[in-house]
Amino acid sequence: MIIKAIRADQNAFAKYGCAVHLTDYEEFADPIQGWRCWITEKFCMDQAARIGMGFTREGAPYTVENMKRDANTKKLFACGAGPAILAVADTKADAAQAGDVRAFLLEPGDFVVINEGIWNDACHGVSGATHYFFLSLEDEESTEYVPIKGGTLVVDA
Questions:
Q1: Where residue 27 falls among pLDDT bands split at 50, 70, 90?
Q2: How far is Cα 97 from Cα 85, in angstroms, rounded to an integer?
Q3: Average pLDDT rounded to a whole number, residues 44-48
Q4: 46 pLDDT band (50/70/90 cuts)?
Q5: Is 34 or 55 the better-scoring residue by pLDDT?
Q6: What pLDDT, on the 0 to 100 scale, is given for residue 55?
Q7: Phi, psi of 24 (to 5 degrees)
Q8: How would you label 94-112 residue by residue, b for 16+ Cβ within 10 Å and e otherwise?
Q9: How far apart are the first and last CA of the chain?
Q10: What is the pTM of this model?
């Protein structure tokens, strides 16, 4: 089965959590010093958290055979310097179901927060190597990747 990644906007991603495009917020800039920044009005996480960075060498299309979930915590994913894809599934069973998996395209400056119990894969680059950041609650339980029921998926941009 092949699934195409779609843009992670708030409407498309609402079933899985929240999506934010930082550049949709007011820009603060100092043209003399050459900096620009954006900041959200409030943050989507409720407790103290850990910050991580992931790196992937592969770009789309790529295969997804396994997913993991954090049953009791939200998790934030933030796009690094290049576009990335995050595959998620809202399956209540003990493994993600192939028919439930959706892929979302994240551009630099985008982040998404997935709700508790949402299955997810690691992020992957669109056209090759990229990095991404993630934030998870400090009391996050240890989770393992579980094979997707219904077979391996191919994700494309």
A1: confident
A2: 19
A3: 63
A4: low
A5: 55
A6: 86
A7: -75, -15
A8: ebbebebbbbbbbeeebbb
A9: 14
A10: 0.80
Nearest CA to 116 among 46, 40, 22, 65? 46
Tokens of 1: 């089965």
Show Cβ contacts of residue 68 under 8 Å, excluding neighbours closer than 6 positions: 119, 120, 121, 143, 144, 145, 146
Q: Give me the percent of the chain exceeding a pLDDT of 90.
A: 48
What CA–CA distance (Å, rounded) separates 106 from 31? 27
Q: What separation in angstroms does the CA of 91 have from each of 62, 98, 118?
A: 21, 9, 7
d(CA 121, CA 69): 9
For residue 5, count other CB atoms closer than 10 A to its CB.
22
Mean per-residue pLDDT, 32-36: 78
> Which residue is associated with the tokens 């990644």?
5
Cα gap 7→19, rounded to integer Å: 10
